[in-house]
Specification:
Length: about 140
């Protein structure tokens, strides 16, 4: 009996570390929004240059505050309005944010897609573009 219990404990201890990447970022956003929804709304409004009323409407129509952030982030990256992103989100939400991004035209090899998969996103003054130093070029000497 003890022989089976030890591996289970080791596996159980490793699970909390899995919460990094995109899911970790989204969980942090949700916690931040729960702690200060008004401040969260103001930051989202400023970052994506939309009115706080629009942010509140979006927050009220989605299950989690992080969903609102992601709809706006993917809209910014794809150059599509919230009205164009929401139907794609609703159709693909069970398949993950990568599927939504692809349907919006964000290429899997792009810096934005890699940032999405790593959870390398930000809410706040540092903005919401792809990570610094990740250009769109095709290698050295090409532009």
């Amino acid at each position: 009996m003890i022989r089976f219990l030890v591996p289970a404990l080791i596996i159980g201890m490793a699970v909390p570390g899995v919460a990094g990447g995109l899911e970790g970022f989204l969980a942090q956003l949700d916690a931040r929004a729960r702690a200060d929804l008004k401040g969260f709304s103001a930051q989202v409004s400023a970052q994506f240059n939309i009115g706080e009323g629009q942010v509140r409407t979006l927050l009220g129509s989605l299950p989690r505050p992080s969903d609102a952030f992601m709809v706006l982030q993917l809209g910014q990256w794809s150059g599509k309005s919230v009205d164009r992103v929401l139907p794609v989100y609703r159709a693909r939400k069970g398949q993950g944010w990568g599927a939504v991004a692809k349907d919006l035209g964000i290429k899997p090899g792009s810096p934005e897609f890699h940032a999405l998969k790593r959870g390398d996103l930000r809410l706040g003054p540092e903005g919401s573009g792809p990570p610094p130093g990740k250009g769109r070029g095709r290698g050295k000497g090409r532009g």
